[in-house]
Design goal:
The protein contains no helices and six strands. The protein is mostly beta strands.
């Protein structure tokens, strides 16, 4: 999956978390300072279903997106 986020990742306190529909964290990844704001994540180990991906930055601000893996 490719994540294109609209927030600047300025330090190592930023991370992306993947949640299942029950709210459990499935995967958590620290972000690196990306100029193009794209992140590539392998989700092959995820079971089929609906997920929420959330980006948290150093200010505690988050962005959410939903996706379905078939």
């Amino acid at each position: 999956i490719t994540i294109d986020f609209n927030m600047k990742v300025q330090d190592n306190d930023s991370y992306v978390a993947f949640f299942d529909v029950r709210g459990r964290v499935i995967k958590k990844i620290k972000c690196v300072n990306e100029e193009n704001q794209l992140m590539y994540v392998n989700i092959n180990e995820f079971e089929s279903g609906c997920y929420i991906v959330r980006l948290f930055n150093h200010d505690g601000i988050s962005q959410n997106a939903r996706f379905t893996k078939q």
